[in-house]
Design brief:
Layout (H helix, E strand, L loop, with lengths): L1 H19 L2 H23 L4 H20 L2 H5 L1 H15 L8 H10 L7 H28 L2 H34 L1
Helix pairs in contact: 1-2, 1-8, 2-3, 5-7, 7-8
């Protein structure tokens, strides 16, 4: 259910674009939708994840600049900036702190369900770095090489699909590694 809630601003963006064929209107809708999402989650949970706050800030800032300059390409950089920022954070976590970001996230979700060696945690973390770099590059490739409607569909279905496939492959790798370590 949380995944659907997380996707609502993106779905509102795509639906608005498909109905109006106006990127400017769709950008305005996602700016409002993600702002409402942050506000509602903040009121209900009393906390908002850093990931959502970062994404919302990029949507509002890059969306605002895009609307102000009437240049949709600026907004199209948002997924790339976010993915490359996450790649840098994941990579930096190898050198800062006692655990990688991947391990911290898995520990907060799975509560000691995964017991991996330090080398496996490093590998998992680097897999995410690679994924974020590739998905950011794929977004820019589609944004520059294909028509606007193709990019909108790629943003909704392509990037979401890539993330789901990667998460499934990561789950298989994790289960295999955890079984080997036992």
């Amino acid at each position: 259910m949380q995944a659907l809630v997380d996707l609502l601003p993106l779905i509102a963006f795509a639906a608005t674009y498909w109905i109006t064929r106006s990127m400017q209107t769709a950008i305005l809708v996602i700016m409002v939708a993600i702002s409402l999402q942050v506000a509602i989650i903040g009121l209900i949970k009393r906390t908002v994840s850093r990931m959502l706050l970062t994404s919302a800030a990029l949507v509002v800032v890059l969306g605002g600049i895009s609307l102000l300059l009437n240049n949709d390409l600026i907004f199209k950089w948002k997924p790339t900036v976010l993915n490359w920022l996450f790649a840098a954070i994941f990579l930096g976590s190898r050198y800062i702190g006692d655990r990688t970001i991947a391990q911290r996230i898995m520990d907060s979700v799975a509560r000691d369900e995964f017991r991996l060696s330090p080398a496996d945690w490093q590998t998992l973390n680097l897999m995410w770095v690679g994924f974020f770099l590739v998905s950011g590059a794929a977004n820019i490739f589609v944004a520059y090489r294909f028509p606007e409607d193709v990019w909108v569909n790629f943003k909704l279905f392509g990037l979401t699909g890539m993330t789901l496939v990667f998460a499934l492959l990561q789950g298989l790798w994790l289960s295999r590694r955890a079984a080997e370590d036992e």
